[in-house]
Design brief:
By secondary structure, this protein is mainly alpha-helical. Helix content is 54%, strand content 4%. The protein has a two-stranded antiparallel ribbon with strand order 1-2. Helix 3 runs parallel beside helix 7, helix 4 runs antiparallel to helix 7 and helix 7 runs antiparallel to helix 9. The longest helix has 23 residues. The chain starts with a helix and ends in a 21-residue tail after the last helix.
């Protein structure tokens, strides 16, 4: 795969496919290509973008946090994925895109060491919380008061889908996400 734009095109074109059909690879032109290492950082930013779009628009401070996260993942202004990231912040992808990207993330997690997997889950959920809190302008520590109901729904779904548990260094059990649904 050349870039994540191709994922977008495939997901939108193949609306009948199940996300698990990708299972770390996808069919194209009769061959199967794995997701490249250089594209993984952008894939792991997609839930941040979904969180930002949850209430229908992306605030300037949400964009700033997303670009900061991208820079931390070595996606700078000159990186070939920066344009794709920018477009995802201008044009809202459909829910199927977000769901399929989350499925791809879930297929990547088991390939990581336990420590790396838990760090990735924690970083992803915490970054999404920061994005959600940014729109409300309040402290990240006060997520319930600074997020919209739509953002809380996205956060709860992500934590549940990723089996994220704050109180367990190794996760693996279903997440307790009741605090996000208030």
């Amino acid at each position: 795969m050349k870039n994540i734009k191709e994922i977008t095109k495939i997901i939108n074109a193949d609306a009948g496919d199940k996300p698990t059909d990708y299972n770390r690879t996808r069919k194209r032109g009769g061959r199967r290509d794995e997701l490249s290492e250089t594209e993984m950082p952008l894939l792991f930013l997609i839930p941040l973008i979904e969180t930002a779009w949850a209430h229908g628009a992306i605030a300037r401070n949400e964009k700033h946090l997303i670009f900061t996260a991208a820079r931390e993942e070595q996606i700078d202004e000159k990186h070939f994925l920066n344009e794709t990231l920018y477009e995802l912040l201008i044009y809202q992808p459909g829910q199927k895109f977000f769901d399929d990207c989350l499925s791809l993330i879930k297929t990547e997690l088991p390939a990581m060491t336990v420590k790396a997997r838990e760090a990735a889950r924690s970083k992803l959920v915490n970054r999404c919380r920061q994005i959600a809190a940014a729109a409300g302008g309040n402290s990240v520590m006060d997520v319930d008061k600074s997020t919209s109901p739509e953002e809380r729904e996205v956060l709860a779904r992500l934590a549940s889908e990723l089996n994220f548990r704050e109180d367990s260094p190794h996760g693996g059990r279903p997440a307790n996400v009741d605090f996000l649904r208030q």
